[in-house]
Amino acid sequence: MSVAQHRPIIDEAWNVEVNGRSYRWPRRPVVVICYDGCDPAYVEAACRDGIVPNLARMRADGFDGVALAAMPTFTNPNNVSIVCGAPPSVHGISGNYFLDVESGEAVMMLDDAGMIARTILSGFSRGGAEVATVTAKDKLLKALAKDLDGVAFSAEKADKATLAANGIEDATRLVGRPTPGQYQPDLSLFVLDAGVRLLEEHAPDLVYLSLSDLVQHSHAPGTPEANAFMAEVDARVGRLIALGATVGIVADHGMTDMALEDGSPNVVYLGDALDARFGVGRTRVICPITDPFVRHHGALGGFVRVHVLDPELEAGEVLAEVAATDGVDLALVRDEACARFELPADREADIVVVAEAGVAIGARAADHDLSQLAGTRLRSHGGLAEQRVPFILSRPLNAAYRARAEDTLRNFDIFDFAINGTD
Q1: 57, 266, 384, 406: which sits with the fewest CB atoms below 10 Å from its CB?
Q2: Dist CA 148 CA 226 (whole Å)
Q3: Does residue 259 form part of some domain?
Q4: Does 306 share its domain with 334?
């Protein structure tokens, strides 16, 4: 599927068509927030404790639902799904990290290479709308800003923003404080403050704000640290609403505790197990959660891919071994996984593996540096257990979209519902 096949179309009614969906021209600013790692349990705990009045008001007066994230439940495929309004099978991004079978090299996704679809953001910007996107993690920037004519920068490198590359000069001036650290909650709050300032100063039509899941990786729902962060986010959400925006909140994935009672990670090292069973070098386990934020999860999550490298080794034999491994929930061959999870077949492995809830799957123990997790429980994502995410809008849905909401919602429906579903 080529990019040309996804070129946005603007019709006479000022609708923008992207990836088979039609989006009307926004009647007021629309801000979509990807609340990275925000399991619905965080929302429930914060609302129960009465510390998020704006979020509670959105749930009461707008729309409050739960959606399913794209599989695997990782940052890159889901952020790209959200801005494309489509699953990985359409846009081509199915992980943070993958094996280039031709070269034999493992590649980390740090740009838009492999994206085969346009984004909603670029569609509107090419149609003349004022569009902005701000992401906490710089690794996402090039994908979110693909073909975008507007403001696009990361909090992680806010001070490096230039007018030519990012549509803004030194974004720290916009927010009024220095670039936050990679492992600070302020990385996300900086994104939200930037969104507020953009609304105040530039009045964009469409804004996408993507946060970091640092807090959720470190703290369970309802803990003082999680609640304090929720309250900080809530105050900024209230400001966006007060500025007249329709605000949509969704997440790229939930979060699950993957530690044993003693606090140590509950990990199955599948690569070691397959080496022991079939011999070293005959298979390779790829952990697509791998990204530059190593302190978040140690490259451990609930979804891995197994490549059978030895042509004399039967994939069916490997599949049977994987499926029988304690801690494995699903083991699927490529075609079955692509059909079930809407994945692009040209980048899929021979076998897709999903862990049971509460279990992380790794490659070989030697491949994972868990020293930076010392003193904290492993909380991570990637599998089906982290697929449920909040789906919340600040305005009520019209009748047509209320009816649609009775069916299964996907997190990548959020732009459609925020733009087309609210009056």
Answers
A1: 406
A2: 34
A3: no
A4: yes
> In sequence order, what are the residues at sequence separation of 6 or more whose Cβ sits closer than 8 angstroms to the Cβ of residue 76?
93, 95, 96, 109, 139, 140, 143, 291
Q: Tokens 């984004």, residue?
A: 119
260: helix, coil or strand?
coil
pTM of the model: 0.94
Q: Distance (Å, rounded) from C-alpha 96 to C-alpha 38?
A: 19
What residues contact 315, with CB distance under 8 A and at least 6 apart? Answer: 308, 333, 350, 351
Could you tell me if 221 and 354 lie in one domain?
Answer: no
Report strand pairing: 379-380 vs 105-108: unpaired
- Asked if residue 55 lies in contact with residue 227, where contact means CB atoms within 8 angstroms, the answer is no
Report the number of distinct structural domains present in the chain: 2
Task: Dump pLDDT digits (tens) for 274-307.
Answer: 999 999 999 999 998 876 555 555 789 999 999 9
Residue 261 lies in a domain: no
Bridge partners for 361 per DSSP: 268, 301
Residue 7: per-residue pLDDT = 41
Tens digits of residue pLDDT in 330-369: 999 999 999 999 999 988 999 999 999 999 999 999 988 8
At 306, which CATH number?
Answer: 3.30.1360.110
Q: What percent of the chain has pLDDT over 70?
A: 91
